[in-house]
Structure formats: C-alpha cells, structure tokens
Amino acid sequence: MSVFRRVRDITVANLNERLEQSQDPVRLIDQFLIETRQEIAEAEKLHYQYAGHTKQLKQQADQAKVMRDKREEQALLALKAGEEHLTKLALQEKMLYEEKIEQYSSLYSQSLESLQELENQLHELKTEYQVVYSKRQYYYARMETLRLQQRMNKRMSDYGMQDVPKMFNRLEDRVSDMEWEARSLRDIRKAGQDFANQAGSVIQSTLEEELSRLKQKLKSRGEE
Predict the structure, then answer these.
(1) What's residue 1's pLDDT?
(2) In this entry, which stretches build a coiled coil (predicted)?
C-alpha cells in the first residue's frame, strides 16, 4: 500500500497529452510544477514524521532488549542465591520484554519499509519536477519565439513592402495635383499678361490713330 497518495490534477502520465491540447503549454506546466512542489513539501513533511516514528520504534525495541538481558542476568543471580521465587519473577518480566521486542521489532520493520517507499516516492517526485522544469524552459523558449514571430509578422503587415506602392501612388496623385494647380496658376498669369499686352497694343494703336488724325486736322487748317 502506498504511503503517500498523490492528489495532483496533472501527472506525468497525462501531461504530454494535455500539452498537445493546450493553447498555453507554459501555463499548464507551471500548474504542474506548483502542484508537484506542494506534493514534495507534503512528502518531505511526512518523511520527517515517519523517520521520527521509525526511530522511536527502534528505541523501544532496543530498550526492551536491554531490559530482557538485564532480567535474565537477575534471574541467574537469584537462581544462584537459591531465590527461586525471585528467579521466576525475573523470568516472567524477561518474557514480557521478549514479547515487547517482537512487537516493536515488527512495527519497526514495517515502518522502515514504508519509510524506504516514501523516500523512493520523494526521489521520484523531485526527478519528475526537474524533468518537467527542463521541459518548461523548452516550451517557454518556443512560445517566446512564436510571440516574437507574431509581432514581426504584424509589423511586416502594417509597414511591409506591400504598402509601399500604395504609398507612392498616393504621393504621385498628390504631386500631380500640385503640378496641375501650379500649371493652372501659370496659365492664368500668362493669359492675364497676354491680355495686358494685347490691351496695351490696342491702346497704342488707337493713340497712333488719334495722333495721325490730329496731324491731318492741323494740316488741313494750315492749308486754309
């Protein structure tokens, strides 16, 4: 019968299966490690108690052996002294201590066996913890790699080369609009200047005509 009953929700037996189904393996492993640490602490506490109990059982058996041997010596001395009544009393106590030796020796053997079983289980728990902790480091590295890859993919999606043509298309449209506006303003200015020049030419021609008319008028008066 097992001395230490495991109460973990996650065990090494089902950890791998649950890891394959988990969206967050690091969190699942951390849960396993927490439960295992708690179990190790409980096992160490139980081991300490069992070790103390086993030591007491051995002390009881050893003390009974000492008292048995002592009563046997007393029985021999009483027999030599011709005290048969005292001899029987000593032998009776010796028999009681022999029974005690048998009882406590049996309990000691059982306790020692259970203590050894508990030590094996404790060693197994610590080994499991170390193995899974190493696996946790590996999965953490994988999840971190995945997280960084996702960040990189998002960055490439937001600012990637596929957006550069669109950006330049928009810039090209804007520059074209600015160029068209500049050309339009230039054409308007040129048209205004041409109109001014044309108007100036018309005025100059009119002035020349008026001047010529006046000269003709003066000439006509002179002839009169």
Answers:
(1) 40
(2) 101-135
In the chain, what is the straight-line distance between the N-terminal and C-terminal CA atoms, in Å? 159
Clarify whether residues 145 and 70 are in a common domain.
yes
Q: What residues contact residue 33 under an 8 Å CB cut-off, 6+ apart?
A: 129, 132, 133, 136
**Which tens digits make up the pLDDT trace of 2-31?**
545 555 566 666 666 666 666 677 787 888
Q: What is the CA radius of gyration of the chain?
A: 56
pLDDT digits (tens, 9 = 90+) for 34-72: 888 888 999 899 999 999 999 999 999 999 999 999 999
The domain of 102 spans: 2-161
Domain boundary among 116, 136, 161: 161
Tell me how far CA of residue 147 lies from CA of 4, 75, 103, 134, 150, in angstroms: 40, 84, 64, 20, 5
Helix (H) or strand (E) holding 19: helix 12-21
DSSP 3-state of 15: helix
24 in the same domain as 82: yes
The encoded tokens of residue 111 equal 């306790």
Mean pLDDT of the chain: 79
Q: What is the CATH number of the domain that holds 35?
A: 1.10.287
Residue 46 and residue 68 in contact, taking contact as beta carbons nearer than 8 Å: no
| Domain count within the chain | 2
Same domain for 155 and 119, yes or no, is yes
Q: What are the pLDDT digits (tens) for 159-213?
A: 555 555 665 667 677 777 777 777 777 776 676 666 556 656 666 777 677 767 7
